[in-house]
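README: folding subset

This subset contains proteins for which both the sequence and a predicted structure token string are available. Records are stored as plain text. Below is the entry for Fructose-bisphosphate aldolase (342 residues), shown exactly as it appears on disk.
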Amino acid sequence: MPIATPEQYAEMLDRAKSGGFAYPAFNASSSQSINAILQGLTEAGSDGIIQVTTGGADYFAGHTVKGRATGALAFAKFAHEVAKSYPITVALHTDHCPKPALDDFLLPLISESEKVVADGGQPIFQSHMWDGSAVPLDENIEIAKSLLPRMKAINSILEVEIGVVGGEEDGVQHEGSNEALYTTTADVAKAVEALGLGDQGRWIAALTFGNVHGVYKPGGVKLRPELLGEIQAGISEKFGTAAKPLDLVFHGGSGSTADEIALAVANGVVKMNIDTDTQYAFTRAVAGYMFSKYDGVLKVDGEVGNKKAYDPRAWGKVAESAMAARVVEATQQLGSAGKSQS
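--- output ---
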């Protein structure tokens, strides 16, 4: 199916919220990972979200070039074309954009969509993330407020982060566990006062409840998904809204238990980012292939090897299928499996 229209994407998020499930959002850094994500979503019968970080976009552009806006556009053009062959609907999103990357990543991409929309087309990306977790809260909200009208004009959704996700992802790093790893209702209230609740443009919120980017064993990080419910209730009471007024995003979920994921979704998470686990699934399959077929992949002791074994397509297919299997698992954990609207 073609990439989701803004209306389809909004409907996806609304449907997840009302249906008590969430969409997995997978980071892609190559055409292979895009294909693996599409394969896995199709096998699961799930719609979903494909996203790219600044580092992923740099890699798409060519690792010696690092033109992240160019790379992100290449990512989107490839995805727009190949997605047509799959019977599911996907939306495109740009992940973590810290303040130093605004001028060479997020703002150029918004400008490109503004040109396309002005010519009667659809936005290139259905949503973009502004990651203000490394700046003071007031500045974080002020930048979000400046971006929201432009996002509304192109019918795209803004993702903001209120709080701090620990660990590191593509150069955005926060150390250790501290109070900032747990968003407060007061902080979210400040964001709502500035951004509204949809009237100024739609936004979704990555609130933090002990999340850490990267890999860790279950129990290795103190997650408090019940905090999301407390914040939802506090915002509902303060602003006189219906229950669960916020659409939430779960970052740093690798190693989370099934119960933690289920409680986060029950408290309004409609999008969960997945990167570390799919990276490992892809690379683990490549490693297994190379170790088991080393005498075909390598020209050992003067032999010629086996071209069919070292053809990148051979191990690439194995890696993509392994990553696709992890995609399927994510859809099952989040409840989106079998719910494709396509």
